[in-house]
Design a protein that fits this description.
The complex is a heterodimer of chains A (258) and B (326). In chain A, helix 3 crosses helix 4, helix 3 packs parallel to helix 6 and helix 4 crosses helix 6. In chain A, the strands form two sheets. Chain A has a six-stranded mixed sheet. Chain A has a four-stranded antiparallel sheet with strand order 2-1-4-5. Chain A is globular and about 55 Å long. Chain A has a single domain, classed as 3-Layer(aba) Sandwich (Rossmann fold). With 258 residues, chain A is an alpha/beta fold. The longest helix of chain A is centred in the middle third of the chain and has 14 residues. Chain B is mainly alpha-helical. Chain B folds into two domains: 58 residues; 255 residues, MetI-like (MetI-like fold), CATH 1.10.3720. In chain B, 78% of the residues lie in helices and 1% in strands. Chain B is built from eleven helices and two strands, in the order ααββααααααααα. Chain B has a two-stranded antiparallel ribbon with strand order 1-2. In chain B, 37% of the residues are buried. Classes of the chains: A alpha/beta (258), B mainly alpha (326). Chains A and B meet through helix 2, helix 3 and helix 6 of A and helix 7, helix 8 and helix 11 of B.
């Protein structure tokens, strides 16, 4: 249950503005791939083009190819809703549905897929919450609103919601940037646990986080404001953080810019 | 010498003291403004009650059960029952017709329409909501009401035999509660749609994206993220529309063939509302007649208040549910 992602010549636009240009990147299954780089370098735009969330923004579009185990996700025949079920996403700010209970939040994706049997839903809710490391904290109050949880718990609830539909890939767009250090560590441990099951892509501003959780790191940057973001270098995380090939990568990871 | 030592101290405290002076003035202004509103409402309530009591005194509890309206007769016979019934029924029917259309329009503009179209039509809608409702009412009275006659006849012919509500026993249709409701629906449609659009626009992008990322279709995004988040705002929009419909006077007075009876046959000519009755009866009313009309105004005041309390209750309960307080 995890698939390989391969992008070829990926370009993402907002209207006429080219935000990301020419990304060729292979993301291996059952690994954590971290995307790092300064603000505005297009790493969020890139990750959002992997489950076709980029195009939800009015005027946004993508060129190039994204292969999921060899199948082009931008093929006109692709069912976008099915794709997004296969490639799950966790956002920067925890965004549980505010009027839904904890249970209903986790079950939301399953209900969209037509699962109606209560026992099946209950099983999936428990399994997903356990995987997200939240079961022990919420098992006795599943009917309370998702919004009643702390920020870190809400983010784990969102992870549970994403994995409840059994995706192949989990995209995480700065999943800890709105959380305190303790919650961040919990989520990081969770990311490492989850890579046994999923292909995981994490965008992060936090270089220590990339170093802690990822197997492979990809460095994005922009030459100047208004220029498109480009992929500079990708490699084993240990290599990127010790002896990167590109001078710009080294400048960034040693804290000289960004 | 005290003046000499006092000067530097005065200089140091001067800046904060000036700011405090500004605060005091501002504080005073807003307190007066708030107090003025309360005094105004209290004055209106006192006026209504004081003027209404002599009229209600004449008929006692029958004021609430009597359907006819002969306040200046001897002995006076009048009551609020038929008027209150007509008011609530016509407004409720109007909302039943207007709200689905208004919500659909607002959802189209925020969720489905191309961005530019949505923006321009949105401006237009705001503009339309600001037009006094009587303008739409006039169109309703002169164009829509005649056009509705065959519609009512058709519905009566199809189901009137089985559903008494749609039956017109005398075969006449035009100036009915139904026609008044349609006119009211036209009048409240723009305001409810404009408010609902504003509510839907407030739904954070994060909630929509959460639904999209789970593989939701547009309709499912609306169901999962947009409508639940907007629930209290939608209730508020509906209640403002209800308030407008309850108080609407001229258009209803123009449509309805005023009659004073509680009747569920919404296609038959007849029916009346409190506001329309005040408008049509005020000129010919004697002393008791005026007091009686003011008493009916007091009832309208009470109905509006009750509707607002219920709406607040709904909003509060959904807010409590969302925040997870016990």
């Amino acid at each position: 249950m995890s698939k390989r992602i391969e992008t070829k010549g990926l370009r993402a636009f907002f209207g006429s503005f080219l935000a990301v240009d020419g990304i060729d990147l292979t993301i291996e299954p059952k690994q954590v791939t971290a995307l790092i780089g300064p603000s505005g370098c297009g790493k969020s735009t890139f990750i959002r083009s992997l489950n076709r969330m980029h195009e939800v923004v009015p005027g946004a579009r993508v060129e190039g190819t994204v292969l999921l185990d060899g199948d082009d996700i931008y093929d006109p025949g692709v069912d976008i809703t099915e794709l997004r079920r296969t490639v799950g996403m966790v956002f920067q700010r925890p965004n549980p549905f505010p009027t839904m209970s904890i249970r209903d939040n986790v079950a939301a994706g399953l209900r969209l897929n037509g699962v109606r049997r209560k026992s099946e839903l209950d099983d999936a809710v428990e399994r997903s919450l356990r995987m997200a490391g939240l079961w022990g904290e919420v098992s006795n109050r599943l009917d309370r609103p998702g919004a009643s949880l702390s920020g870190g718990q809400q983010q784990r609830l969102c992870i549970a919601r994403a994995i409840a539909v059994a995706p192949e890939v989990l995209l995480m767009d700065e999943p800890c940037s709105a959380l305190d250090p303790v919650s961040t560590l919990t989520i990081e441990d969770l990311i490492v646990d989850l890579k046994d099951e999923y292909t995981i892509v994490v965008v992060t501003h936090n270089m220590q986080q990339a170093a802690r959780v990822s197997d492979v790191t990809a460095f994005f940057t922009i030459e100047a404001a208004g220029e498109p973001g480009r992929l500079i270098e990708v490699g084993e995380t240990s290599k990127i953080f010790t002896k990167p090939d590109d001078a710009r990568t080294e400048a960034y990871i040693t804290g000289r810019f960004g | 010498m005290t003046a000499a030592t006092g000067t530097p101290i005065a200089t140091t405290v001067r800046a904060p003291s000036r700011r405090r002076h500004g605060d005091t003035v501002f504080h005073g202004i807003v307190v007066v403004a708030a107090g003025f509103v309360l005094v105004l409402i209290a004055a209106i309530a006192v006026f209504l009650i004081a003027q209404a009591v002599p009229a209600i005194d004449k008929v006692g509890w029958r004021f609430f059960t009597e359907e006819t309206w002969f306040p200046d007769a001897e002995p006076a016979r009048f009551g609020i029952a038929a008027l209150a019934f007509g008011t609530v029924l016509s407004s409720a029917l109007a909302l039943a017709m207007a709200v689905p259309v208004a919500l659909g329009c607002a959802l189209f503009l925020t969720e489905l329409a191309p961005r530019r179209l949505g923006r321009y039509v949105g401006y237009l809608l705001d503009l339309l909501a600001a037009v006094p409702s009587v303008v739409y009412g006039l169109w309703g009275v002169f164009v829509l009401v005649p056009a509705l006659v065959p519609v009512q006849r058709g519905i009566d012919g199809a189901v009137g035999g089985v559903v008494p509500v749609f039956d017109s026993r005398n075969g006449v249709y035009g100036r009915s509660i139904f026609a008044a409701s349609v006119v009211l629906a036209i009048m409240v449609l723009p305001i409810v749609a404009a408010l609902a659009r504003e509510v839907f626009r407030q739904v954070p992008r994060a909630h929509r994206e959460a639904a999209f990322a789970l593989g939701a279709t547009r309709w499912e995004v609306i169901k999962l993220a947009v409508l639940p988040y907007g629930r209290s705002g939608i209730v508020g929009a509906i209640m403002l529309g209800f308030g407008r419909a309850l108080g609407e006077t001229i258009a209803v007075a123009l449509v309805l063939a005023a009659s004073f009876s509680i009747d569920i046959h919404i296609f038959e000519p007849g029916g009346n509302t409190i506001a329309a009755n005040i408008a049509t009866k005020f000129g010919e009313a004697g002393q008791t007649g005026r007091n009686a009309l003011i008493a009916s105004g007091l009832v309208l005041f009470a109905i509006t208040l009750l509707v607002n309390v219920i709406a607040r209750g709904i909003v509060y309960r959904s807010a409590v549910a969302a925040e997870g307080k016990p």
